[in-house]
Amino acid sequence: MSETNVWPAVAGIAYGGDYNPEQWPREVWRDDVARMRDAGVNLVSVGIFSWALLETSEGLFDFAWLDEVIDLLHENGIAVDLGTPTASPPAWFFAAHPGARVQSRDGTVMGFGSRGMASHSSEAYRTAIVRIADALAQRYADHPAVVLWHVHNEYGAPVGEDYSEQSVQAFRSWLSARYGSLDALNAAWGTAFWGQHYTTWDHIGAPAATPSVANPAQRLDFARFTDARMRECYVLERDAIRAHAAQPITTNFMANQHWGVNLWAWAAEVDVVSNDHYLWAADPEAEIGLAIAADLTRSLAGGNPWILMEHSTSAVNWQGRNIAKRPGEMARNSLSHFGRGADAILFFQWRASRSGAEKFHSAMLPHAGTESRVWREVVDLGAKLDRLAEVRDSRVTADVAILWDFESFWAQDLEWRPSDDVSSRERIRAYYEQLWRDGITVDFALPSHDLSRYALVIAPALYLLSTADAANLTRYVERGGTLLVSFFSGIVDENDRVHEGGFGAPLSQALGVRVEEFLPLREGVTSTLAWQADPAQNLPADIWQEALATTGAEIRATYVNGPAAGGPAITRHRHGSGTGWYVSTRVQNTGMRTLMSAVYEDAGITPSDLPERFEVIVRRSADADFVVAINHGDAAASLAVSGVELLTGSGVSDSHDVPAGDVAVIRTTAPSGGERILP
Questions:
Q1: Dihedral sign, CA of 155, 157, 163, 165?
Q2: What single string gives the DSSP state of each residue in 62-99?
């Protein structure tokens, strides 16, 4: 990511979405633009799936229709995020280059008719994406409507890994560059196990379907390789654009929804971070998953404002049960992203499609037209965002970080782990959810990052941990930080080898414990912990126990029953100036509140006493706080705050009531000296 904050040249908060005029006759275009103006739209993404209409055959371009669309948008004061259409190569491309098709792990060659169908290792594909990116940039680099470039679309979705022969050859080259020698590769992969030793690079393949479990280190490296190959394709397009154009360049992430891409590495390659987020309809509190995605995106952006590139006005079309958003939910979703740092609120898509796989996906202008509730809410949201222009470029700060390492997730999710019940996603959600309910804003970070600014760091799922990163976490504790580590963390190194010294060994100094054995529970079995500060209080737990030996830590909870009965379950260890907590089981329900209250006390953090499902975030500028209060509940909620409510312009003295399902944004003035009055 650029060292400085790079932002598209759009006034105020950007508002709009994907615009696909090629799906509609020309007479609809002017109506579209007029409706955009009614809704307050000031930015649309164009051309993302238009390759077949822009390059009608290899090297033959037709830009006339796109010229017309971009000129029309510009005439009406609407800026353009211009996409490169490389997520969906045309039929002529695959006819000319059949070897560019993706091959699945079981050997199936993917056919035409979807999206994301090309191998990122295909030289024909790489040549073609540079050609069209270059042609677009040459033509539109100086067009005054174009304020942002949008490369590809959702890398890795629906497919990232490719097991074709060209991918295998590229994998060998990548491995040779990574390890330098076969001896180093054999050592890293532990090929002495099951007789997998390699004597020539040509014998190494992709970890395709095997009779039993494939080498996990090989699979982990193939995931790294796949991520790197996709990122190389992005860089090829980005650099082709940059040769002609000065506008910022991005590609849309899928934070907390698609984990097959190492977004920390990708964030370093974009000028501005953008993200797509869709609610999971089966989640009755989907606003918490939304908040995770927004906080992760802000963290990837280094705290800079970011772009919500896609979300939905109502239902999506690709889940098992596509639940429509209720009245006011679209605004709550949008303003939660906004509260957590987004300075652009965009949707998929502008006008609902009549044909194709996404014709039942909601849109800003739905099939029901301008007489619909969705349309009225779209217009209302545009007006709200217009009133929030002064919040742009303010920042969100956090005292707590949750560690989020994609490579660790990849490794943990491979086969033959001690229990199918142990999920990195679930553990992150559980700890984040408690913080969310306690009104505590969270950043996400890598274990290698400088963590010194955080009072509390939580590692809910850190299965893979290098010795260098473990040393960084240990220094964090030594220097006064509070670290909480959940079970099944610090188990293997970067090559998926169990650490010398045993499970959790790299963190033993910071935590003062030693894990002797994993003791997973049978399905449906629960256990109970005795909380030492109040022996009458029992904490519910399930799925996992450990035979845990203390090496200096004090015991804060013990197992009442189960295979580890009588042994330590939760420990606290003073190391240097800080404290390391270890939680060797999955604490449930009310037990999380008890646990985290004790951890907060060590970290000097005071949770907010907020009503249930009342979300409060603060954005800060040099001279004001902007308090974003979102009531997801069924009853009015009151917030202690003074200032000006920006959505209505009314003054607020001492407290403000937020009706059920509503949102308020209150500007409060910072006192001299820079300290803030927080709700």
A1: negative
A2: --HHHHHHHHHHHHTT-EEEEEP-TTS--HHHHHH-GG
Q: Does residue 499 carry a pLDDT above 80?
A: yes
Quick count: other Cβ atoms within 10 Å of Cβ 187? 14
Dihedral angle sign, alpha carbons of residues 651, 656, 657, 661 = positive
What is the structure's pLDDT at 665? 98
pTM of the model: 0.97
H and E: helices and strands count for the chain: 17, 30
pLDDT, tens digit, for every residue of 352-375? 999 999 999 999 999 999 999 999
Burial of 419 (0-12, 13-18, 19+ CB in 10 A): middle
**What amino acid is encoded at 206 in this protein?**
A
Model pLDDT, residue 674 = 36
Inter-residue contact 388 to 646 (CB < 8 Å): yes
Residue 3 is predicted with a pLDDT of 46
Mapped onto helix, strand or coil, the DSSP state of residue 232 is: helix
Which two three-digit tokens encode residue 226? 């796949």
Tell me if residue 609 falls in helix, strand or coil: coil
Residue 352: left if φ>0, alpha if ψ -120 to 50, beta else—which one? beta
> What's the rounded mean pLDDT across residues 635-659?
96
Q: Are strands 637-640 and 655-658 parallel, antiparallel or unpaired?
A: antiparallel
Q: Is the pLDDT of residue 671 over 60?
A: no
In whole angstroms, what is the distance from residue 395 CA to residue 626 CA?
10
Backbone angles phi, psi at 70, to 5 degrees: -65, -40
The answer, yes or no, to whether residue 5 has pLDDT greater than 50, is: yes
Burial of 649 (0-12, 13-18, 19+ CB in 10 A): exposed
Structural domains in the chain plus CATH codes: 400-603 (3.40.50.880), 614-669 (2.60.40.1180)
CA distance 594 to 450: 29
Helix (H) or strand (E) holding 510: helix 508-511
Arithmetic mean of pLDDT, 508-535: 97
Residue 258 — pLDDT band, cuts 50, 70, 90?
Answer: confident
Q: Which residues of 146-172 are buried (b: 16+ CB within 10 A; e: fewer)?
A: bbbbbbbbbbbbebbbbbbebbbebbb
Residue burial 86-125, b: 16+ Cβ < 10 Å; e: rest: bbbbbeebbeebeebbbbebeeeebeeeebbbbbbbbebb
Residue 336 CA to its chain's centroid (Å): 15
Residue type, 355: S
Q: Is the peptide bond before 545 cis (omega within 30 degrees of 0)?
A: no
Q: At 615, which helix (H) or strand (E)?
A: strand 614-620
Query: Nearest 5 degrees, angle CA 378-CA 382-CA 383?
Result: 120
The residues assigned a catalytic role are 154, 310
Tallying the residues shown for the chain, one arrives at 679
Residue that the structure tokens 């993404």 belong to: 45
Please, which pLDDT band fits residue 117 given cuts at 50, 70 and 90? Answer: confident
Which amino acid does the sequence have at 261?
A: V
- Cis peptide preceding 460, ω within 30 of 0: no
Query: Three-state SS across 280-317?
Result: CCCCCCHHHHHHHHHHHHHHHCCCCCEEEEECCCCCCC
421 φ, ψ (degrees, to nearest 5): -80, -15
What φ, ψ does residue 286 adopt, rounded to 5°? -65, -20
Q: What percent of the chain has pLDDT over 70?
A: 98
For residue 469, the SS3 value is: helix
Residue 555 main-chain phi, psi, to 5 deg: -90, 125
- pLDDT above 90: residue 544: yes
Three-state DSSP at 439 gives coil
